Amino acid sequence: MKRLINGAALTLACATLAIFLLFPLYYAMITSLKSGAELFHVTYWPTEFDFTNYLRIWKEQQFARNILNSVIVATSVVALSLALALTAAYALGRVQFAGRRMLLYSILAISMFPQIAVLSGLFEVIRVLGLYNSLAGLIFSYMIFTLPFTVWVLTTFMRDLPVEIEEAAILDGLSPFVIVTQIFMPLMAPAMAATGLLAFIAAWNEFLFALTFTLSNEQRTVPVAIALITGASEYELPWGNIMAASVIVTLPLIALVLIFQRHLVAGLTAGAVKG
Amino acid sequence: MARVRLDNLSKRFGSTDVIRSIDLDITDGEFVVFVGPSGCGKSTLLRLIAGLEEATSGAIWIGDKDVTHVSPAKRGVSMVFQSYALYPHMDAYRNIAFGLKIPDTSEDTVDGRVRKAAEMLQIADLLHRRPRELSGGQRQRVAIARAIVRQPQVFLFDEPLSNLDAALRARTRLEIARLHDALKSTMIFVTHDQLEAMTLADRIVLLNNGRVEQAGTPTDLYRRPATRFAAEFIGSPTMNILSAKIDEGVATIASGERLAIPTQHRGEADIGVRPENIALASPEEPNALHARVLHVEDVGESRIVHAVLADGTGLTLRHADDRAPPRKGESLALRLDPHRLHLFGKDGRRIE
Fold first, then answer.
1. What are phi and psi of B308, to 5 degrees?
2. Statement to judge: residues A43 and A71 lie in one domain
3. Mutation site, A171, A179, A182, A187, interface B, largest B CB count within 10 A
4. Which chain A residues are Cβ-neighbours of B89 within 8 angstroms?
């Protein structure tokens, strides 16, 4: 009896949490399937299945272009962050050198600053480098917030790998590059999947830098593009389009998390448990 | 061509001297065991030879080459680690072959060498397995095979048997001895286990506190320990030590009993006697020590008897004959074999 009550309570708690988390997405989904005046009518069940909103965002906006931009930016950020973080983790986790702790904490300190605080300074940097209104500018600026945590997580993970494996590789005559890419990288795959996914999500969702460092719609990423969706006249709020677009940008993230979920759990807990 | 020579070798970590000017000459094909208590520097010495640690001063020669500042891979050494240190994501075959992927080794030679080493260690049908699908003993064989294929001038073993269970340890020990017979290469083996040292070594190097305490054949170390430390480290159960005052060939031990001892030495000294050199005597026998039995351990082929003298000094003896063994609480008269007594001065050095 007591077990039954506990079970019921747990189920109830989970259901409440799920509803709280998923309701906004659900509401966006059912709204995106409505059209005309029906949009402003509050309902909790799907009333119609009209896909015109989805067709409109592809036709009226350059939404395909925006998605492509987001994919390019997020993928590049992940690839660059992981490549830099892996090599940095090898140095910070395995090589003894003066100022190592200092360096490690400076990297952490970078993530202390709120985006808005560095925005104007970074704007100047981006202009000087000639990266204004380009995807490269976004990739460059996103690394500011992805690198600190990728470096930290991978460094912790690298420290936990047995030293003997590296020593065996040294005796086998392998160069540091081969050791990192052929021995450590496969062993760190779960950690890299987890941090890579988090970096991807951060880059995919980023709004402030994307808004500030781009000018034309051809260079915009999805979050900015959605925010700037306009209707036919200034009196029309294209609610249906916005909802349809929101649903579309959510799907890749859900797919990624589902694909990597096993690695995600392994990667996020492994370092913590051993460390 | 694989003589190993250590020349005044020292290693310091911060302000701690781990290796203190060691000189050692290991001849080609010799099986040398570094043994000692933990923290004596035996593993560090091995790692210095491997090149995993940089020497603070002194030189290391392998063959006729000074390798003190040569990178580990170019020293012609292979190492087997206590934790096996296999690459977890590669199968046994790739683990063994991985170090051979160098430009001047052709595909066929690699394959041939891997198969031959696998044959030798009886792991030929395990080659497609990953390390986590192998038992501890099998993993250690893969690690040894990985060391063999590189055809090193010197094999280094860092406590390779410590992670194995007792039965497997004895078997692998024998296999390593046979491997040495087959390959005839120089081997250096580190262990804290004196039994492994005694059974494997051509020569034992006993280390204590970063110095060589004694180097010699297992028999040398067992029969003629150079110091009290060596006497107590080698042999199981541990050698008994009785402090005594010696005058005119008669030792008076702490319990007040007297003992004839064939020596010219006078003054204070420690008398060492191994448990197997103590026999039961008749109570009236002159020179006998009287003790009370605390506990008897039956180890099968003999009994280990733990006893105490009148003053509380512990004495361990091995009772190996067929007569009824002493029982707990019983009083015993003990005869110490006068020709198997070891005498150590107060500085710990052996007195002849």
1. -130, 145
2. no
3. A171
4. 186-187
Same domain, B186 and B255: no
Structural domain count, chain B? 2
Q: Contact A152/A107 with Cβ under 8 angstroms?
A: yes
Peptide bond into B237 cis (omega under 30): yes
**Can you give the residue range of the structural domain that contains A27?**
1-50
Q: Are B149 and B132 in contact (CB under 8 A)?
A: no
Angle of helix B136-149 versus helix B107-120 axis, rounded to 10? 140
Sign of torsion over alpha carbons B110, B115, B118, B119: negative
Between B77, B81, B102, which is nearest A168 by CB? B81
Closest-CA residue in chain B for A186?
Answer: B89
Task: For residues B199 and B269, state if they share a domain.
Answer: no
Q: Which of these three, B211, B230, B249, is where a domain ends? A: B230
> CB of B5 within 8 A of CB of B24?
yes
Can you read off the two tokens belonging to residue A37? 């005046």
Cβ atoms of B113 and B122 within 8 Å: the answer is no
User: What is the domain-level CATH number for residue B133?
Assistant: 3.40.50.300
Give the separation between CA A190 and CA A185, rounded to whole angstroms.
10
B151 contact residues in A (CB cutoff 8 A): none
Residue that is last in its domain, among B201, B230, B259:
B230
pLDDT in tens, chain A (275 residues): 788 889 999 999 999 999 999 998 898 888 888 877 777 778 888 877 888 888 888 887 788 899 999 999 999 999 999 999 999 999 999 888 888 999 999 988 888 888 898 899 999 999 999 999 999 999 999 999 999 999 999 998 898 888 899 999 999 888 889 999 999 998 888 889 889 999 999 999 999 999 999 998 889 999 998 888 876 666 677 888 888 888 988 988 989 888 887 776 666 555 443 33
Of B73, B79, B86, the CB nearest to A173: B73
Identify the bridge partners of residue B207 per DSSP, sorted by sequence position. B212
For the domain that residue A116 is a member of, what is the CATH number? 1.10.3720.10
Domain that holds residue B13: 4-230
Q: How far is CA A26 from CA A20, A29, A57, B340, in A?
A: 11, 5, 19, 90
Angle at the Cα of B274 from the Cα atoms of B271 and B280, rounded to 5 degrees: 100
The closest of A31, A56, A71, A55 to A249, measured between CA atoms, is A71
Q: Using the beta-carbon criterion (under 8 Å), do A167 and B150 form an inter-chain contact?
A: no
User: Is A121 in the same domain as A211?
Assistant: yes
Tokens of B313: 């000094």
Q: Are residues A35 and A98 in the same domain?
A: no
Query: Can you tell me the ipTM of this complex?
Result: 0.84
